[in-house]
Amino acid sequence: MEEPGSLEVEFNSAYGTQKMGNAFVAPWVELEYGATGWWTTEFYLDTQSTFNDSTLFTGFRWENRFRPLMREHWINPVLYVEYENTNGADKTLKEVVGFDNQFDFSEPNSELRKEHNHEIETKLILSSDYRGWNISENFIGEKNLGHQPWEFGYAVGVSRPLRLAATSERCNFCSENFVVGAEMYGGLGTAARLSLSGTSHYLAPLVAWELPNGVSFTVSPGFGLNDNSHRFLLRWGVSYEISGFGRKVRSLFQ
Amino acid sequence: MMRSRPLITAMLLVASLAFAIVGAAGERERATDDRGVLLVIAQAPAKTRGWKNPYEGNSDALLAGKKLYLQHCADCHGQNARGMRNAISLRTPQVQNATAGELVWFLRNGNLFYGMPAWSGLPEQRRWQIVTYLKSLR
Q: What is the C-alpha separation between A89 and A105, in angstroms, rounded?
């Protein structure tokens, strides 16, 4: 969850290779705002560029995360609701659901962009902190509003700072600023056919570098675990947190 | 009709973001009521009063705690922890008289309805370091 009143501006990208079709880069911009201590809202603008094809804007997403419990527990749930207005050429691959697979992207952008997706995505995010480790499990349900069945997916991940206690001096390259982890994510079929058969799955190590000035870098090379998956999926991003953004905006109008 | 749908959606999004910012403003105003914050400290389970700060008397931990305070807390509570705008002074007797265990519990849980975020994402060691610094402000 974002701190109340803070705005995080993020630039992320996914690079993917595929057996049938050209490799692609899918950058997206995120604006994440901490509305309250228990509510974070986020707006995305998605684009993509496919090698030897074209570059295009693929749509927007609006996401809201809510903490239903006001106290910390062994397992802390967060409810996640996202509205997606994207076209079929969207390749950001923020999550994998249903029977998503690499062959979905084998057609040229001019064909893919004709498909319009109006979807509601829901997630139950369960997260735990134990001895410096953060463990999270996401259960994903996505519904295309155009009479398509619910699609399901999952993501599980663990991460930990390289050093748990902080050092006494401000530093950029010290181990306390680095977080390492791994994530596994994939599809679980649809409401009509819950199955692992025909779904794609990925395993992705993760490294994050969190600087004291609010800038963060993340890199996560993902590897497809079966023939339905992209062989290689590299996610990377840079973000900057503006503390007290809401207060600064309000002061403009006072 | 179809062309107007993205426009309407975009307007709804902008309105929702504005609502979120206004909502945060309301939250900050409620946070000025330091009784709300302090009551939550008082709600810390009794067992937390017995928690011993592993960094008590450790000067390196105090400096690390100050660094973490400036990084995570000073924007709301002020560089000198005397409070700022709607966030309370951390030098008040109500805070300083709380035990280290109660404070570290409060840092972990926050007070989400009154604008204090939960710092459960920070490793426990760093929360104790912040408490070590806060206790040095007495």
A: 7
